[in-house]
Design brief:
Elements: H1 7-29, H2 31-90, E1 95-99, E2 111-115, H3 123-147, H4 152-166, H5 170-177, H6 179-185, H7 199-214
Antiparallel strand pairs: 1-2
Helix pairs in contact: 2-3, 2-4, 3-4, 3-5, 3-7, 4-7, 5-6
């Protein structure tokens, strides 16, 4: 005897068949949707890689130019900063010198001297370190003018170099006039001082004194 198939079974089979057909139709209907998604992801990844590569290249180029600039600037600014450092060592501090340092102020210094200080650092030591370039290079100018006969062809460059090295910066003046703030900050850094604009006067005066000592 042949059994009659149950109606629900037939219906289920038909339903399953329709479901499979729908799936196949859906897959065939959108063959590019998956490819488009994968393509967009690949393009996005390639774009990000290209951007990162470009940023890395720009950073490398910037670092290279900074190194070149430091090489040319160092002979000009180092004498001034080394005077700070020499006196700092004499008073027991550990100096740090940077050429073209990263700076957040309105004007970027060509060189920077710094050293850690604390409440035990005497005021006279802070002021002596800040004023060191003036004392050091006026002394150098006096010694050179006394013991060395300078050719007139090179006297002007020497005057400019020594006066530039001896001249106090606005930061130096600010620290000399407000050593307490530097001590509180723990470094040779202050916000500013009304006296710092006096460099308009002190710089040409320093240049004149250096010239008198050399000639």
């Amino acid at each position: 005897m042949v059994e009659r198939p149950d109606r629900s079974t037939v219906t289920d089979k038909k339903s399953g068949l329709h479901s499979e057909i729908d799936n196949v139709t859906s897959d065939n209907r959108n063959p590019d949707s998956t490819n488009n998604t994968e393509g967009d992801a690949a393009l996005g990844s390639a774009s990000e890689s290209q951007t990162e590569s470009q940023l890395g290249s720009n950073s490398s180029s910037r670092a290279r130019w900074q190194t070149i600039a430091r090489v040319f600037i160092a002979p000009i600014v180092l004498p001034h900063e080394l005077a700070h450092a020499a006196v700092a060592v004499l008073v027991g501090l550990n100096p740090v010198i940077r050429i073209l340092p990263q700076w957040s102020g309105t004007t970027v210094p060509l060189g920077q001297f710094d050293a850690e200080i604390d409440t035990s650092t005497p005021t006279w030591a802070i002021q002596a370190v800040a004023a060191a370039p003036l004392a050091v290079y006026l002394t150098v100018a006096a010694l050179v003018g006394t013991f060395i006969s300078i050719n007139t062809a090179v006297v002007l460059p020497i005057i400019l170099l020594l006066s530039f090295s001896a001249s106090l910066s606005t930061g130096d003046i600010a620290i000399i006039s407000n050593p307490a703030e530097a001590r509180q900050a723990g470094a040779f850094v202050v916000q500013g001082s009304t006296w710092q604009n006096i460099t308009i006067i002190t710089t040409p005066v320093t240049t004149a004194v250096v010239a008198i000592l050399l000639i």
